[in-house]
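haha ok so turns out i had the wrong file open the whole time. this is the CORRECT one, sorry everyone. sequence first:
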Amino acid sequence: WFVPGTAPVAPVAPPPAPALRVVFPDGGDVFHRDVDAPDAISRLRLRAEAPPEVMRVAWEVDGVATEPASRPFTRWWRLAPGVHTLRVRDADAPDHVSPAVRFEVLD
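then structure:
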């Protein structure tokens, strides 16, 4: 028996490390590109998260990889009309790849 409020509390497990994944955009997102806007502002900020041991990622849009980037895992991408597939890879372990995310850009 314990006095109310004095019972031992079970330890809480730390949250699991994040998986390598695209955070933004979400699968199925649809964006509209303003054809009158300059290319410099017709961009989308891609975001990813990864386990702590991942130091660099390479973004892959429609099968074309970018140069590796360090934390925070963000990259600006110029909007281009069409349906696109996006994933990120651990730049130091290329077989470690995120699930693909498909999104669309309309004119």
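The chain has a mean pLDDT of 90.
again sry for the mixup
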